[in-house]
Amino acid sequence: MSAADIASDVPSKARKRRFNTREVLAALVFVLPFVLVYAVLFIYPTIQMILLSFQKAPLIGAGTWVGFDNYAKLFKDKLFGVAFWNTVYFVALTAVPSTLLALAIAIGINRLKGWVQSLILACFFIPYILPVSVVFRVWGWMFDSQFGILQPLIALVAGGNVPVFRTLPLFMPTVAFITIWWTIGFNILLFIAGLRNISPEIYEAASIDGTSKWRQFARITWPLIWPVTVLVLTIQLIAQFKIFDQVYLFGNGGRSDATMGLVQLIYRSAFQKNNGGYGATVAVVLFLVIVVFSVLQFQLLRARGGDNK
């Protein structure tokens, strides 16, 4: 290469380097506000929560460092065991059933056309926009042991009126059913969006080949809708682990320890008893449980989705 070629190549490299620098600076300008907000609203409070879990301290104010004493106390606390089991039980009753039911309903709605499809979809989505207080009132009246409109149906099975929310074996399944009714509309929307991304030509080709509806679902719909299924199930898992409102309200203002969840235990410890250190300890454990369950579930489902390809 001649000296002239080398000389002409230097400015081009400099321009390229300068162009890349400008791209990086532009990217930082757009990303930095989000990073700052994320750090202030999530990373910093998380670090403070972890530090508070190692202290004997009120919710607001200075405390004394106690190391792992709060964690040792936590795993000896029977109420924590009850709250942990109730939370896991509630997740099992809601996360997977809500996902599968939403998929089935979405497939049915996706086959409808025009205003009928819009009307049915609206009927499923309207409960999702209701505040929890309205949901509590509506279903509280419907299950009321004296004048609830569902009590005649319950009496056919139980032989008489049953105070559902005061009967421990029925409490969690009933609240889980109400939660699915309340939140399933959002899941249905996600599944419909995924179903509409599947080309109709694929189904037409399968129909021409004589493929049955079930085999079309197993070979086409299920593998292609799998990423949405993973998303919906992960969202449900995280949301239901943080259950508080429904259990608190239907449990008569959280007065029953037998129906307590982990978030309710955090609320009682930190805000009602002003034991911020112990409340932070429960919060750290809940945070770790959500992270572990979410990562494991996502990896397992993604691996299963890879097998379907």
CATH architecture: Orthogonal Bundle
Residue ranges: pLDDT <50 for 5 or more in a row? Answer: none
Backbone shape: globular
The chain-level structural class is mainly alpha
Q: Give the terminus-to-terminus CA distance.
A: 50 Å
Radius of gyration of CA atoms, rounded to a whole number: 27 Å
CATH superfamily assignment? MetI-like
Would you mind describing this structure in some detail?
The structure is a single chain. This protein is mostly helical. It has one domain: MetI-like fold. Helix content is about 75%, strand content about 0%. Helix 4 packs antiparallel against helix 7 (about 170-195) and helix 7 crosses helix 9 (about 215-240). The chain contains twelve helices and two strands.
Give the SSE map:
Layout: H1 3-52, E1 55-56, E2 64-65, H2 69-74, H3 78-110, H4 114-125, H5 132-142, H6 151-158, H7 168-196, H8 200-208, H9 213-241, H10 245-250, H11 262-272, H12 276-308
Antiparallel strand pairs: 1-2
Would you summarize the structure shown here?
The chain contains twelve helices and two strands; from the N terminus they run αββααααααααααα.
Question: What are the main properties of this structure?
Answer:
309 residues, mainly alpha, MetI-like fold, two-stranded antiparallel sheet, 12 helices, 77% helix, 1% strand, globular
